[in-house]
Amino acid sequence: MPVRQLPETVVNRIAAGEVVERPASVVKELVENAIDAGSSRIDIFTDGGGRRRIGITDDGAGMTHADLALAVDRHATSKLDDEDLLAIRTLGFRGEALPSIGSVARLSITTRHVSEPHAWALAVEGGAKSPIVPAALSQGTRVEVSDLFYATPARLKFLKTDRTEAEAIREVVRRLAMARPDIAFGMAGEERAPVSWAAALPGAAGRLTRLGDILGGDFRSCAIEVRSERDGVVVEGFAAAPSLTRANALGQYLFVNGRPVRDKLIIGAVRAAYSDYLPRDRHPVVALFVTLDSREVDANVHPAKTEVRFRDAGLVRGLIVHALKEGLAREGKRTAANDAGATISSFRPSFAPRANWDWRASPSYPVAGSAAYDTASGFAERAQAGFDVGAPSADIRAYQPASADLTERPLGAARTQIHQTYIVAQTRDGLVVVDQHAAHERLVYEKLKASLDKNGVQRQILLIPEIVEMDEATVERLVARGEELAKFGLVVESFGPGAVAVRETPSLLGKTDAGALLRDLAEHMAEWDEALPLERRLMHVAATMACHGSVRAGRVLKPEEMNALLREMEDTPNSGQCNHGRPTYVELKLSDIEKLFGRR
């Protein structure tokens, strides 16, 4: 078959196949054009998931008659001052969006430039342009796209339901709105209720306001500000406390020079930064903004501009990890579970008193089953039985020194231990309940890491080596990782076909069940990928050892031990969560407790 030049209409439709994948792609390109035009407000309307109609209206600079005539031609753009593709400072620069959309849909553009006496309108249908005619528009540009893919019916078969396509459009607009909190956005359509986001103030406070409006109040309440800078690269934004997690990584947003992108770089960096805080199957919520010289990043590697390539990817990844770790360590005692507001919602009774019954006039609490008290949820009779725990494990009020006012400390003074598991402490303005095992687990873990960084973990030689029997595959796995285990003071060696001998253990763990520890370590090692960095493998070992070396639930603690644990938690970074991401304590403010009993 001879070589031939393709017709212009076919070329445009091929380009449309790269740029216009679905209605959300059209919205993305048009909203980016509106942002580049300097708009202060952008309104989006969709119908039929975007396939029937898409309307974008902005109050930007608009286009002149001459610009409008060129705007729908291929590779015509106002976004590049010269031919230097390494100095891209705008979102749209390829000059393919409008002609690609016009080749597969009915496109209408109405625009007015400040220098023009009136607006101009242009229509494109299946790639055919109509003459430019005068129109009415006060300012900016209005673009309407209807009957998407009518010129390429086969593409319609690949679209999903209207609701699914509408949700994809919302996600695109959400990302662009997060990137530009200084711009007001409005979004409406028959699939969802209208939503609008007002322009926010400049700075971190305004950015957090916009992120909270989009990601929800939970994110706003537990967001931690992060920032890191080196060699002209700045990473800043907000990360949620470890208690706010998702089942996937869709809650992680990366913006490069104001451009929303999807990059595997952030997923790996965020996983590394949160590895000490979260279970393996949970993912945090973060919004990170990377700012760097446009010559240090290539935004031209993907037709839809959803991916970028960094000149120094290692530097960017390192800054992301450093910013997140520094922020999490700084706010290590903050989690949503520690917050009084989140905790009180779990305790608040939900009941519906009769209109003719006033609890203030009642001489006593109404008996269960009384007609005057209808329990809806919360402290129901069956749930109440769980709180009938008998006498506390320890009551140390009599032992509390009168001169030591520990209630002024952040975690207060220990007052009692219940169920041999939880320490109840009194603070100046409330109370704190501590999970003794989870808290001590974090303390041991941080000590192991600190010892490893200094001069290695101190060992204790067993007088009689402990022999642990296992299957041969497990023994081989442990012996192969012997050097890594030795870094933490655990020295093992093969002892026949199906056994290992434990000769030394970390002194920090004290007396420990070597068999149970080795079995847990072997289970974790079976899940390791050889590509997993050595540092991460060592941290997995440390976390497992910390779990086995910490105070167990069920152990009765002395008063001085309880207070010592509280003081260590105050001085230890990241003590708000255990190694598995669970909170180590919950706090109740006195004002919230008073609300439970109707005192305020």
From TrEMBL:
- Output the SMART domains linked to this UniProt entry: DNA_mis_repair (SM01340), MutL_C (SM00853)
- Residue ranges occupied by any MutL C-terminal dimerisation domain in the UniProt entry: 414-557
* Biological process according to GO: mismatch repair
Sorted alphabetically, which InterPro entries does this protein's record hold?
A: DNA_mismatch_repair_CS (IPR014762), DNA_mismatch_repair_MutL (IPR020667), DNA_mismatch_S5_2-like (IPR013507), HATPase_C_sf (IPR036890), MutL/Mlh/PMS (IPR002099), MutL/Mlh/Pms-like (IPR038973), MutL_C (IPR014790), MutL_C_dimsub (IPR042120)
Q: Does the keyword DNA repair apply?
A: yes
User: What HAMAP family does its record include?
Assistant: DNA_mis_repair (MF_00149)
- Give the protein name, as stated in the record: DNA mismatch repair protein MutL
Originating species: Rhodopseudomonas rhenobacensis
